[in-house]
Amino acid sequence: MADDFVNLDKNSYFFLLQEVTSLREKLGRLESFQIRSEQQEIWQDLEERNRLLSGVATAANCLLSVTNYDDSIDAALAALGKATVVDRVYIFENSLHPETGEPQMTQNWEWVAPGIKSQINNPLLKNLPYKDFCPRWYELLSQGDAIVGIIKDFPDSEKEILTSQGIHSIFVMPIQIKNKFWGFIGFDNCHIEHQWSECQQLVLKSAVGTLGTAIARHQTEIKLRESQQFLQLVIDNIPQSIFWKDCNSVYLGCNSNFARISGVEKPENIIGLTDNDLSWEDSQFNFSHKWERERQVLQTGFAQLNIVETQKQADGQEFWANTNTIPLRNTEEHVVGILGTYEDITKRKQAEESLQLIQFALNRVQDCVFLVDSLGNFSYVNEASCHILGYSQAELLNMSVFDVDITLPRDNWSKIWDQLKQEKFLNPESILQTKSGKQFPVEISANYLKFNDKEYSCAIARDITERKNADAALKQLNEELEFRVEKRTEQLLQAKVEEQKLIALIEHSHDLITIASPDNELLYINAAGCKLLGISDYCQVKNETFRKIYSPEIWQYILQDVQPTLLKTGSWQGELLLKHCLTGEIIEIESSIFLIRDQQTQEHLYTASISRDIRERKQVELQLKQQAEELEKSLFELRYTQTQLIHSEKMSSLGQMVAGIAHEINNPVSFVYGNLNPASSYFQDLLGLVKLYQQCYPEPPQVIQEKIETIELDFLEQDLTKLLDSMQEGTRRIKEIVISLRNFSRLDESEFKKVNIHDGIDSTLMILRNRLKAQPNRPEITVAKRYDNLPLVDCYPSQLNQVFMNILNNAIDALDEYSKTLTFAGINVYPCYINIATERISDNSVTIRITDNGPGISQDIQDRLFEPFFTTKDIGNGTGLGLSISYQIIVEKHGGKLSCQSNCGQGTEFIIEIPITH
């Protein structure tokens, strides 16, 4: 219950009455039980208890209603003393000895009945150690136990002390504050030996709880008040102006500095006011920006810090302030107000503005401005110094004058500094060096300064490169002027001589030389030019335009192409056509045209030209060109013929070799093939004889039976027949290959004769059979033949077979290369094939179409397909003559046609068309 009193308001008294009423009801039930035996005595006890409860209630009311803390305690003790009918009621407070730390007690409050001597001022009861008084009490009271009883029953050590004070009976209870033994309250009877009943003890313990709560509340108020006073003292001693408001912008407090600038006499006087309530001298002062900032802080919960702005005091004086507006939060992190601070930075702002003005002025100076200390180190450099020397400001501030002044000796610096201190100003010339190594002369104006007991030199270095250059240039100009006067005189004399030479050279030149004005008026033409143009007298064309000697087409070309180039570059060179003034003959010339300008102003003065008649040279060039073309053509034909001869010789040798091989193979193969039939017949006879022996002698001797088993006669009988059949098939195929080789070589058929074209195609396919077989990168190339019923055709069989061989070889090469670009699955979906179709398209014409499904041939390659030496294959894989020779064989030898039809990605088809008869 004591804890509940800590947070109670004025109605706490009624709460206490409810507790007392409840206690009375409990006591009433107890009394009802006791009335049965001792009714009269119980009524007396009941009256005593009612008196005690009323006293407790009165004491509680005093603690809650009396404003003065000490008075409230005294009134409560008086109410308790009268209610309990004791002689003395007192309260002792515990403390610790400052040196030994031993517990001790001090009497702070006391009530005594009339006639009883007060002990409140007894010095012996101040800081009295428990061990010197009653050691047992501290142990019992600290554990929450009460000390109650008749004094004569107490221990002798305690009895003597208590009896000396006239005490007959005593009731002491501990006072607990925040679960700590704070002190105790005592009730003394000095006239009677009073026995304290349990009911009385219970009621008084309740009163002690209320008393402890009041003491705790008072101590808290004291600490809070002291804390507030100290906090106000701290805030008042802060140099900034500080205030705090609630969420409605109502002032809750401020420090003395803010009260002063706001026109408030004391900080506490501002509580409950708003900005509009303050007596600002300037009634037009606008608080909107301040209120807006405070509103944003209250809404967002974010502080607005270090805002520099102008503020006004209540007297209207304006000052610069660094303002901070900070949200105030409660324990639940809710914004409940704001804290504002103003720091007067007027002097700092003025100093900054002055410094900025000086800095601005120094940075606008075009010369280098340095502040150098006594050791030669840079303390300040302006922007021009950084720009001119190529260093950043940070770099220069870590450098010294010796790093940039190449003429300043470090060893001699102390003497130079002493001279500057003595004379206060030096004005030498020196040479500075930039970061990139560039050096330039400067004039230095150095002053001696002393600031804060430190020595400095303010130096201004001005670039005098232009002045130095001007002095040097002036000196050089004077020297050159004298030299040029002498030189000019010499040049004038020499120019006169050169002019005479030039006139003689122009007049005797065989080239056409002209001079015209910028408007193309002809001002001069030499004698050779007059002769070339058929002009008898120069005066005939004087003041005429160039148009007089050019055809209209050439003149238009000069205006549109030559003249713009001439004006842009100053010269033009090329070939033109002149017109003979008498005959109108066109004269080819090689002309060089150039502008003559004023050497100083570059003004266009004249247009000059030097032209040479190139008609003879053109004729010679034309003849040489024709001869070169004829020679190139002859060389190409010779090369082509030579290549064909070599190829023919190779083919002839190859044909002879193939024919010889075919002949050599054919003889033994024919011998083998011819003997196979008799051998087969002999084998059958021998086999019949063996079977006859088996029938006649079913049980031969043991030796013969073992031999039969060893040679596996039954298997030998079957396998030998198959072996002979296989040999017969092999020799037959060899004979077909030999026939194909002979048909392909056709050495005996090199003349023009009638042949079956299909035989030539089949022979070629037989030879190419190995190339058509499956390869590692592709399956077998399928060949589909669709032959028409063709008659015998007049042709050169060997040459025609060569055409078939070239086209089919190219088709196989194309399919091989195309297969390399496909996956195995793609090849299976689109297998490689070659289609060969023959057809009679007229009474005297047949066509052979050879088609593949390779990558196709682009149009630009098709246009050059039959050119000699043109090939798309890698070097060493093709001569470029195969299709060229094939084209020559079909077109020139057979009077036919050879064409190609192809699209990229759609395969290629070669069409051979030849006549049946010639």
Automatic annotation (TrEMBL):
Catalytic activity: ATP + protein L-histidine = ADP + protein N-phospho-L-histidine
CDD domains: HisKA, PAS
Domain annotation Histidine kinase: ranges: 660-918
Keyword Manganese in annotation: no
Coiled-coil positions: 460-487
GO molecular function: ATP binding; phosphorelay sensor kinase activity
Domain spans labelled PAS: 354-411, 498-553
Superkingdom: Bacteria
Residue ranges of domain PAC in the record: 301-357
InterPro entries the record matches: GAF (IPR003018), GAF-like_dom_sf (IPR029016), HATPase_C_sf (IPR036890), HATPase_dom (IPR003594), His_kinase_dom (IPR005467), HisK_dim/P_dom (IPR003661), HisK_dim/P_sf (IPR036097), PAC (IPR001610)
PROSITE patterns, alphabetized: HIS_KIN, PAC, PAS
Keywords: Coiled coil, Kinase, Phosphoprotein, Transferase, Two-component regulatory system
EC number, UniProt record: 2.7.13.3
Name used for this protein in its record: histidine kinase
